[in-house]
Design goal:
Blueprint (H helix, E strand, L loop, with lengths): L3 E6 L2 H17 L5 E5 L6 H8 L1 H4 L7 E5 L1 E3 L9 H10 L21 H16 L11 E6 L24 E4 L10 E4 L1 H5 L1 E8 L5 H8 L5 H4 L5 E7 L9
Parallel strand pairs: 1-9, 2-3, 2-5, 5-8, 8-9
Antiparallel strand pairs: 4-7, 6-7
The structure holds 6-phosphogluconic acid.
6-phosphogluconic acid (6PG) binds next to strand 4.
Keywords: Hydrolase
EC number: 3.1.1.31
Organism: Bradyrhizobium lablabi
């Protein structure tokens, strides 16, 4: 199962640049419809800003790239906590055709029911993919971006949560978050996230070092269970890298 590769970089700027090159390489490797699964939190912000800058923006084949999100906080689309809202603001708005942006719906009739939004998104993913079961020979995503939280969560898959063991559903509601912000979540499940050519984690800053030490020690935490059927890359900057890493 160890198809994970750790790439150490100097700092957050170098990390964003390395990630941007990988994103562009994935787009160039597929001359058809490209599917990118974005992530939220603070880690990918610098990458999104870089991709939106003049040098990178012109290298993205916008018409054929489709943008999804791996997890969402159950807040309105225009709430600052909304993951796709952040991606839109920093990268997508003004560049991506509206029909190519695929947010997780949070404006469902029952505000207490993230499962409804999850079911709708699962339907959207299935219809984009064109089948109800994932074929290992034909990944859903070209690239899945990920981050890891201080408790070892990734996407909105928290330690000990039953969502981690879900194998039938592609997307599930998570009533209770383990870390801030404490709002219900909607998350893609592990098999759905795994259906990609590349899964790319971004981990930067001293605040990540403690959890990275535990993850590299092999603890059974969500971020260690998230693996691509293809390549899994962890981009880690100097401040986040455990001292004894070698
Ligand atoms: C979210 C994210 C989440 C994130 C990690 C890391 O909705 O919060 O998708 O999985 O990637 O919590 O967050 P930071 O990048 O803010 O450290």
């Amino acid at each position: 199962n160890d198809n994970r590769r750790v790439i150490a970089v100097a700092d957050p700027a170098a990390l964003a640049a390395a990630a941007a090159e990988r994103v562009l390489a994935r787009m160039a490797a597929n001359n058809g419809r490209v599917a990118i699964c974005l992530t939220g939190g603070s880690s990918p912000k610098q990458l999104y800003q870089l991709l939106a800058s003049d040098t990178y923006r012109s290298r993205i084949p916008w018409q054929r790239v489709h943008w999804f999100i791996g997890d969402e906080r159950f807040v309105p689309a225009d709430d600052p906590l909304n993951n796709m809202g952040m991606a839109r603001k920093t990268l997508l708005d003004g560049c991506a055709p509206a029909a190519n942006i695929h947010p997780i719906p949070t404006a469902t009739a029952d505000p207490a029911d993230p499962d409804r939004g999850a079911a709708l998104y699962e339907q959207e993913l299935r219809s984009f993919y064109g089948a109800d079961t994932l074929d290992p020979a034909r990944p859903l995503f070209d690239l899945v971006l990920m981050g890891a939280g201080p408790d070892g969560h990734t996407a909105s898959l928290f330690p000990g949560d039953p969502a981690l063991d879900e194998t039938a559903r592609w997307v599930v509601g998570v009533p209770k978050a383990n870390v801030e912000p404490f709002v219900p979540r909607i998350t893609l499940t592990l098999p759905t996230l795994a259906s990609c050519r590349e899964m790319l984690f971004e981990l930067a800053g001293g605040a990540k070092r403690a959890i990275l030490t535990r993850l590299f020690a092999g603890e059974n935490l969500p971020a260690n269970r998230a693996r691509s059927a293809g390549e899994t890359i962890w981009l880690v900057d100097r401040d986040a890298l455990p001292e004894d890493f070698g």
